[in-house]
Amino acid sequence: MGNIVNRVFDSSGPEGKVRGTPQQIIDKYNQLTRDAQLSNDRVAAENFQQHAEHYARMLGEAQREQEAKKAEQEAQQQQAREAREARQAEAAAEKGEKGGKPDQGAAPETGEQQGRGPDQKSFGAVIDVPGKEDSGLVETPESAPKPKPKRRRSPKKSDEAKSAPADGGDTQPDGPSSEGSQAAE
Questions:
Q1: What letter would DSSP give residue 69?
Q2: Residue 180 and residue 160 in contact, taking contact as beta carbons nearer than 8 Å
Q3: Three-class SS string for 114-180?
Q4: Cβ–Cβ < 8 Å for 37, 45
Q5: CA dist., res. 161 & res. 174, Å (int)
Q6: What does pLDDT average to over the chain?
Q7: pLDDT tens sequence across 97-121
Q8: Is residue 108 within 8 Å of residue 123, measured between CB atoms?
Q9: Are 108 and 96 in contact (CB under 8 A)?
Q10: What does the angle CA 96 – CA 97 – CA 101 come to, to the nearest 5 degrees?
Q11: Rounded distance, CA 33 to CA 27, Å?
């Protein structure tokens, strides 16, 4: 229905149209009722009173709906707040920051003691044992040893360098031979 409390209505009463919010219409009909009573017109007074009562009921119902919605929203917010606090308390208990004793079955938070940084969590009693291949842990892609990159091979030597004498003659193994330089000229 929308927001009835602030909505503007046109009421067609016995004296003509009355325009305004429900509260303004109620006030106007109450004023017309008093005027009719002062003029000893009981029929007109009763008619104005019934119109005022109609808008009073409509306004009261709209206000009850708004209060119910507000109470429901507050209840939902309270539940969300309690759930958030419960998660935070659970996380704090898990970390051992609650101030109480940690669970007897769980290992205390010792991330820095196990060579981990302060922002890395320790997950129970799982400890890496260097040098022990079968530690009972499941191997994940992150924990698998990384393959060493292959070395680049040096370019193959020319046929002339292969046929060079092994006695260390006048040719140099890495440089071009004199025959090759003469052939190039």
A1: H
A2: yes
A3: CCCCCCCCCCCCCCCCCCCCCCCCCCCCCCCCCCCCCCCCCCCCCHHHHCCCCCCCCCCCCCCCHHH
A4: yes
A5: 8
A6: 74
A7: 545 554 555 555 554 455 555 555 5
A8: no
A9: yes
A10: 50
A11: 10
* CB environment 125-135: b (16+ within 10 A), e (fewer): eeeeeeeeeee
Q: Looking at residues 156-180, what average pLDDT do you find?
A: 55
What is the residue whose two structure tokens read 């698998």?
144
- Look at the block and give the residue holding tokens 């503007």: 8
Angle at 90 between CA 85 and CA 95, to 5 degrees: 125
CB 53 within 8 A of CB 38: no
- Residue 121 · residue 128 · CB < 8 Å: no
Q: How do residues 75-85 score in pLDDT, each as one tens digit?
A: 999 999 999 99
Backbone φ, ψ for residue 62 (5° rounding):
-65, -40
Provide the token pair at 118: 């302060």
Supply the pTM of this predicted model.
Answer: 0.43
Q: Kindly report the backbone phi and psi dihedral angles of residue 129, in degrees, each rounded to the nearest multiple of 5, phi listed first.
A: -110, 110
